[in-house]
Amino acid sequence: MKKTILNIFFSLLLLSLLTPFWVFSQLQFPFITSKAFFFRICVELALPFYLYLAIADKQLRPNLKNPFNLAVLVFLFFSIISAVFGLNVSRSLWGNFERMGGVYYLAHLVAVFFYLQLLGKANSLYLKIFLQSFIVVASVLSLNGLSSWLGGPAFVMDPSLPERSSSTFGNPIFFASYLIIPLFLAVYLAMQEKQRIARVFYWIAVALQLGGLYSSVTRGATVGIAAGLLAGLVIYVFLSENRKLKKYGIVLIGLFLALIIGIFLIRNKLSSDSALYSLTKLKDSNTEARLIQWGVALKGYKDHPIIGVGPENYNIIFAKYFDPKLYQYDPSWFDKPHNYLLEILTTGGAVGFVAYLSSFGLAIYACWKAYKRELLSAMEFSILVAGLIAYQAQNMFVFDTVSASVAYFVFLGFLAYMWGEVSDLEQVAKVENRYAAPAFYICLPLVLVLIYISNIASIQAAKRVNMGYSYTEYDPKTAAGYFESALATPFNLDKQETANRYSDFASKLLFLQNPEISEDFIKEQADKATANQKKITESVGNDPLLWMRLVIGEMNQALVYKKNVNNAQGSMDKALASAPKRVEILQLQLQLYGTNKQWTDSLHVAKKIVGYNPYKPELKWQLAMSYFLNDQIEEAIKAGDEAVAQGFKFNKLQQFAWYIQYYEDQKNYAKVAPLLEQAIALEPNEIGLYVDLAKVYANLGNYEKARLLAQQVAQADPSQKAAMDVFIKSLK
Questions:
Q1: How far is residue 620 CA from its own chain's centroid?
Q2: Which of 573, 634, 652, 676 has the greatest number of beta carbons closer than 10 A?
């Protein structure tokens, strides 16, 4: 039975390697949720088999005296502590559909870490096959990405970024992050392999993965690999006892550095559309935005320095300490600082950060220990350490993802196995333990229940949310049914995302202009969505996006029922308290004050908005309108001029009729002419505008244009012909 159990266990681990291939378009965030749910189910199914083997033979049990194992467990433990005492417990524990992170997912990664140790102890050949399969999977994914990038066929490809390959990951950065570990593993196995055919296979895999990485055009991964290779070369030169090899190694380091410098020296001669140009672009808006984000993260860390705010809760920090300078670059509502080490520091605090770095340091020590036991050559040791450094170096520029984190913990599990003693299947077969079988049969049904609770139910909810979203435009009633069904789904682990999407749907109903939608139906959906949003928002208490959606919901309710919008003020105050410098929330406050004709308060908010985001001309125009409504005409004109100078384009005549009138009164016809041109473009049937513009051109001395406009008016409106004839005759 043990042999069968081991074979099934091994098969499930092999199956988990297929995680990156899964993309179910029916699910919400299909590139993320599909992979995470599949991986979790595989790991959970493997648990009874793992317990059986671990109970059956004490040699296969994890060595909890091993510092490496302890460090990983300590990291998991402190992640749980941070989650329980964090700012959003539910999100910390279960993650959300968009990221699928959280402590629960981390527990699965830790499980894989221990699974691989047991697999290696039970049968080292199985572990080798597992690693080979890992490399095959990465190579196939690379070939898929490379093929699509070159214009060839691909079985899954996100078309949103055709100039950058993302393979089956939906994002080129996620694709590149995943490839780092199997790339270095392939080089390591190639160095170890004695058979020529096998070596060729590994080097082909390396070539394919490098091609995949290049096609992703991802700087973080490129920098990571470069840092890893440089570190590996330095380590190898330091360890090598062969003087000749040392000499060659030093030369190689010099050539490597020269190559990097050379690429940057010739970069300006490269085509701006080339991948190499993009990879070597050090200063751009993206880079500058991330530097600002990192500053925000460090500010947030100071509030919760010991245990952090809890995993997956960085969004709360980001909103609270948001730097308005980001409006110049990328004003997104970031839930990650695009630096995984900073994310660990802010969400897990100092204890989580130290625990994570300890696991990384002990992974390097595991390689060192294997080297000292002569299980690794100096070259092999250097390659494995280079892989670890490469992964962590690229983590300085990105956040950990579902598939990349699986790859990393597979690597850690393999290194932890090398730390321990190696046994084989024959040794396992000699050991009997009467508790193994009962434990297996008890655990198996419990795991099946767990799979339903933690995965199947949430898959159903994610599918229903996505279906609701897809039906919104053409069949709102069916969409409502899907959203309500998602809310009612038992054990839906991301109720926040479900509530958010339902609120978005209810808001959209107001503007669909579908004759089949009754006012009662709109009211019903507004009430249900807002009530549910309120329940979720208040249970979390400090998420600005949740409060913002609740404000929108309450304002929409007021609109539907034709009530005073003051009911939304309480939620508005909470939203602003959690994100005081977010213009998006201040815009809602401006709308609220405008509805109530609180013009003085509106002006105060409009000034704030422009102070935080002076880069958008439409916000300047809002300020101009606020000045105008407060009878501060000179200030209104000044703000309006700045908005126009920034490129603001009007979309309603009523928006700027006062602005035109001011300059007409001032006889500033040079200003009036382009404004009237915009007005005519918006209202082409408004004859009076043509008449006004003709007069303006006459005053400017442009008689030809004035004449043409007068003729147009006469043709369009015969009642004006006599007046236009007189006007034309008056032109010099």
A1: 30
A2: 676
**Residue 37 domain flag:** no
Question: Cα–Cα distances in Å, from 98 out to 32, 538, 558?
Answer: 7, 21, 31
Q: How far, in Å, CA of 588 to CA of 610, rounded?
A: 14
CA atoms 153, 156, 157, 159: torsion sign: positive
Q: How confident is the model at residue 422 (pLDDT cuts 50, 70, 90)?
A: very low
**Is 111 domain-assigned?**
yes
Place of tokens 């802010």: 346
- State how far the Cα of 264 lies from the Cα of 272, in Å rounded to an integer: 13
Q: Count Cβ atoms below 10 Å from residue 99 Cβ, excluding itself.
A: 21
What is the DSSP code (8-state) at residue 123? Answer: -
CA-CA distances (angstroms) from residue 372 to 117, 193, 232, 245? Answer: 20, 20, 17, 20
Alpha carbon dihedral 53, 59, 62, 63, in 10-degree steps, equals 170
What is the C-alpha to C-alpha distance for residues 187 and 192, in angstroms, rounded to an integer? Answer: 9
Encoded tokens for 34: 């599909």
Residue 700 backbone dihedrals phi, psi, to 5 degrees = -85, -5
**If you average pLDDT over every residue of the chain, what do you get?**
90
Q: Which residue has the tokens 């039970």?
A: 122
The string of pLDDT tens digits covering residues 707-717 is: 999 999 999 88
3 falls within a domain: no
Q: Tell whether pTM > 0.85.
A: yes
- Domain coverage including residue 710: 654-732
**Pick from 415, 412, 403: which is nearest to 177 by CA?**
403
Interatomic CA distance for residues 297 and 336, integer angstroms: 9
Lookup result for tokens 């090398």: 418
**Distance (Å, rounded) from C-alpha 77 to C-alpha 69?**
12
Residue 383 contacts residue 184 (beta carbons within 8 Å): yes
Closest CA to 408 of 104, 101, 185: 185
Give the amino acid at 353. F
Q: Is residue 253 part of a domain?
A: yes
Distances (CA, A) of 442 to 9, 48, 52, 55, 236: 17, 8, 11, 13, 50
For the stretch 272-323, pLDDT in tens is: 555 555 555 656 667 788 889 999 999 999 999 999 999 999 999 999 999 9
The pair of structure tokens assigned to 334 is: 């970031």
Burial 660-670 (b: 16+ CB within 10 A, else e): bebbbeeeebe
The structure tokens listed for 586 are: 């201040």
Radius of gyration of the chain (CA): 32
Query: What end-to-end distance do the CA atoms of the chain give, in Å?
Result: 107
List the helix and strand counts (H, then E) for the chain: 33, 0
**What's 726's domain CATH number?**
1.25.40.10
